[in-house]
Design goal:
This protein is of the alpha+beta class and 454 residues long. It folds into 3 domains: 142 residues, TATA-Binding Protein; 181 residues, Trna Endonuclease, Chain: A, domain 1; 97 residues, Arc Repressor Mutant, subunit A, CATH 1.10.10. The strands form 5 sheets. Strands 8-13-14-15-16-17 form a 6-stranded mixed β-sheet, with helices on both faces. A 5-stranded antiparallel β-sheet has the order 4-5-6-1-7, with helices on both faces. It has a 4-stranded antiparallel β-sheet with strand order 9-12-10-11. The chain binds zinc ion (ZN).
């Protein structure tokens, strides 16, 4: 996942001093794109001596005012990482004067180390190249920008919710239940008070028994033996194993036979784990939560059972100032589900709604969303949900969704840097971080470059 690590210091530097610092950083071996292009530009024209006039020109050149170039941003590229240094003060009398240094990286580790390395390099070059009398009085504290991946109070304040609880046993169980064949059998067993071997009919009997054995091995299902009176054909007791029958000398209240001599039928029931996982399709919540975390969403950004006035959402993500609500269905998502979902999306101020179904989003349900999107009463994003149809599609869709969101976030930063540099940096960002996938009618359909102003 693409991450931005950045910090700032309330330094006031004029464009000449900023130029000298960047010159210093480039001269110790770091290469920034604007500095290097200026040097190449001059060299091409036979200029090699960086005189005071030339440095002045790099720091600021005036081509009839409006298109003037002030050197206040530069970029470094290391492997898959962009490092930027911005001087927010040159040429502006802004109260927000600062030097900002940031690292934008697609690798999950090392971003902070790179940031520290550049901050140190900046400070070293400041000391070496700017008048000591000025530097001595500068406040060089670096403050880290807060990462906006925490829960926002507008989601949690008025509502009930709980944080995810993930145990290894439940996570493994959720993975097992995500298998279609296993889940169908588990559901059949859950529907019966006691599911007996005799309920299984037809040619698939062997394969069903095999599946039940798998479920028993995974501790989702367990065996019980029902003892029935042979004479009256009514159940008289249940035991966990046939061995128990020999232990107790119990006799039938109807005919007086010993239990062991009555009719004994094998049956299957869900274990506590099996019940917890299937109740309210809790396995889907666990599977989704694990997939979100694996795709880079911090665990603190995920909440379960967000509830207000009897409206409940199974899973909510708050990420980069956006609120996503997930609707989970262990069946097809029908048209009747569409209106309640839209209502919840509005109620919880969702910026995005995502339907995760083990089946399909039916044609009729799709039509409801399309009709609603023509009347944008409820606000745009929440009315057109994203569809995840089937467990197999979950990972890929989440990754695209999260990648999209981080690209949006980075593209804001990239555009801001381009503006500040007076040069479009979009080729660099596009090359490193790729394209954004546009969503249409619930599916991702097309790649676009979102780093460019159009
Ligand atoms: Zn009996």
């Amino acid at each position: 996942m693409i991450e931005v690590f950045n910090c700032y210091s309330k330094l006031t530097l004029d464009s000449t001093d900023f130029t000298k610092i960047l010159k210093g950083i480039n001269e110790v071996g770091y290469q920034s794109v604007i500095w290097q292009s200026k040097i190449k530009f001059l060299e091409t024209a036979g200029i090699k001596n960086l005189s005071k006039e030339i440095l002045d020109w790099i720091g600021y050149y005036n081509v009839k005012g409006t298109n003037s170039f002030i050197y206040r941003t530069d970029l470094f590229v290391e492997d898959k990482t962009v490092i930027y240094i911005t001087n927010e003060s040159s040429g502006f009398s802004s109260p927000d004067r600062r030097i900002e240094i940031g690292v934008i990286s697609d690798s999950t580790t090392g971003g902070n180390d790179i940031l520290i390395r550049y901050v140190k390099q900046f400070e070293a070059s400041l000391k070496a190249n700017v008048d000591g009398r000025k530097v001595r009085h500068m406040e060089k504290n670096w403050l880290i920008f807060s990462k906006n991946d925490k829960l926002d109070t507008h989601v949690t304040y008025y509502n009930l919710f709980r944080y995810p609880i993930l145990t290894d046993i439940e996570s493994q169980a959720a993975l097992i239940i995500s298998d279609n064949k296993l889940r169908q059998i588990l559901r059949r067993i859950a529907e019966h008070e006691s599911f007996q071997t005799q309920h299984i009919k037809g040619e698939h009997k062997d394969s069903i028994l095999e599946t039940i054995n798998e479920l028993i091995n995974y501790s989702l299902v367990t065996t019980r033996y029902i003892v029935s009176c042979k004479k009256k054909s009514t159940p008289i007791g249940v035991v966990q194993s046939k061995g128990e029958l020999g232990k107790f000398v119990l006799s039938c209240p109807h005919c007086g036979r010993n239990f062991a001599d009555e009719l004994i039928q094998e049956s299957f029931i869900l274990t506590d784990l099996g019940r917890q996982m299937t109740s309210g399709s809790h396995w889907m919540t666990i599977l989704l939560t694990n997939s979100l975390i694996e795709s880079g969403i911090p665990k603190e950004s995920i909440i379960w059972n967000l509830t207000q006035d009897s409206e409940e959402v199974d899973c909510v993500v708050q990420f980069k100032d956006k609120t996503w609500i997930f609707e989970l269905k262990d069946r097809d998502f029908e048209s009747g589900d569409a209106h309640p979902l839209t209502y919840r999306a509005v109620k919880f101020k969702a910026t995005k709604t995502i339907i995760f179904t083990t089946g399909k989003v039916t044609k009729e349900a799709r039509k409801v969303f399309q009709d609603m999107s023509h009347h944008t009463v409820a606000g745009k994003a929440s009315v057109s949900p994203l569809y995840i149809e089937g467990v197999a599609a979950l990972k890929a869709v989440l990754q695209t969704l999260i990648n999209n969101e981080t690209l949006l976030y980075v593209s804001d930063k990239a555009k801001q840097l381009s503006l500040s540099a007076g040069l479009d940096f979009s080729p660099i960002f596009l090359n490193l971080f790729g394209k954004y996938r546009i969503e249409h009618k619930g599916e991702f359909v097309e790649d676009v470059n979102i780093f460019r102003y159009y």
